[in-house]
Every structure is written in structure tokens, then in C-alpha cells.
Automatic annotation (TrEMBL):
Membrane-spanning parts: 43-60
Record keywords, A-Z: Membrane, Transmembrane, Transmembrane helix
Protein name: Uncharacterized protein
Length: 71
């Protein structure tokens, strides 16, 4: 399903928060199920978040190039 071009960019800007919310939910659920001390749990959350932000940055950059290349 293709969206009209004039509405496509607006929808992408509105949904730019969604990947970060998903990252937060995954980091929370991933560490809450671990049986670690609070120190290690916090450390794992920081590592997951940093890695997730780097991956999201490159993924969003790649997707923006794909959407910009379409006529």
C-alpha cells in the first residue's frame, strides 16, 4: 500500500518516536527478566541502550536515503 507523497513525509515524521519507544520497551523487558544484581542490571541496560541507539541511527539513516530516492 502506497501513501500519497504529500502525506508520506508527515507520517514518517510523526512516527520517528516509535523506534525509540520500541527500543526502550525491549531494553526494559530484556533486563527485567534477568536474575542479576541492581548494578549489573543497570550496566546491561546502558549497554543495550547504547547499542540500540547506534543501530537505530544507522537504520533510520538508511531508510531516509531509501525514501528520499523514491520519486
Amino acid at each position: 500500500m502506497q501513501l500519497p507523497l504529500k502525506h508520506g513525509k508527515a507520517n514518517i515524521k510523526k512516527m520517528s518516536l516509535v523506534p525509540f519507544v520500541i527500543l526502550g520497551i525491549l531494553a526494559f523487558t530484556g533486563t527485567s527478566s534477568l536474575n542479576l544484581s541492581y548494578f549489573w542490571r543497570g550496566y546491561v541496560v546502558l549497554l543495550e541502550t547504547q547499542a540500540g541507539l547506534v543501530i537505530l541511527y544507522f537504520l533510520m539513516h538508511k531508510l531516509s536515503k531509501i525514501y528520499a530516492a523514491k520519486p
